[in-house]
Amino acid sequence: MNKLLLSEIQSEEKDLLQILVMLEEYIFQDSFALNDDFMNLELPLSPQILEVEHYKDIECSLDTLEQIIMQCQAVIEDIESPLEQTEILINQLYFQHLFIDRKRTVWPVDAFKVASSLNNRLMSPIIKAAFITEIINACGFETDIVFVPNNVMVRICCDDQFAIIFDPITGESLDWQELDLRLDELDGDPSEHELVTMKQQAILVEHLSVFKNALIKEQSFDRALRCVDILVSLNPDDPLQRRDRGFLLHQLDCFKVAVDDYRYFVEQCPKDPAAQLLKLQLDNFMLSETVFH
Predict the structure, then answer these.
(1) Which residue, 125, 130, 137, 168, has fewest beta-carbon neighbours within 10 Å?
(2) Residue range 137-171, pLDDT digits in tens
(3) Using omega within 30 degrees of 0 as the cis cutoff, is the peptide bond preceding 190 cis?
(4) Relative orientation angle of helices 125-138 and 16-28, to the nearest 10 degrees
(5) From CA 200, how far away is CA 43, in angstroms rounded?
(6) CA 197 – CA 202 distance, rounded (Å)
(7) Are the CB atoms for 168 and 154 separated by under 8 Å?
(8) How many domains does the chain have?
(9) Co-location of 137 and 66 in the same domain
(10) Residue 255 gets which letter from DSSP?
(11) 187 lies in which domain range?
(12) Shared domain check, 251 and 177
């Protein structure tokens, strides 16, 4: 795991789209190393996006994004009501700019490529949420990413009293009744439930987890291993991520290296059916090692 990359993605001061581009570069390129020139690039546009000269699609992405921002700003210019402005912005993005999509269990890998996903209008949930917040923030609103069981959603604060919360994939908004029902699923006193902005690390964990599943489906195990290496670095004690890392190492014919991760999962989740099967596999492996020696 690249320590410099890890320090950058753990920084709350970094722009989300910057980090998504860094992750894309790290996961997709065969050999990638962050250097000082890369980390110190100036971000000339607002909203800020990392501009990487050798990454050809980024120029196109920046042009597309800038055009969308300019059109969104123009369409609300003569409208006074903030609530009406936000409703028009959502319609502009999802219907005029074709952001509308359907939910998927597993996303295609291309949906995780920041530049091409915007150009092709096939964006994974977090990438789309990141683009939407950048665009609407540039239109003068306070926009953030929130978690509403069981979805990552976008919230636009229209003014001190009103906010619109909607699904970044479909553009469908929640009414207050549905929001209350969703929040009732959370643990604790319902009267104390409130929506808070997701921390950047939580957003990246969500992104990398979905990204990892897409890569596993396409049997791109080496790239999926890069995803899970970052996830384990962010949450070293997560037994499910340790299990997945063990699985990927196993698929890459590194079973001896996978043993420690498998064993950790078995110890932390002994009642999990997968842990019981893995325990038998580990016992057989240790027995064969003993016989061999």
Answers:
(1) 137
(2) 999 999 999 999 889 999 999 988 899 999 999 99
(3) no
(4) 150
(5) 19
(6) 10
(7) yes
(8) 2
(9) yes
(10) H
(11) 3-192
(12) no
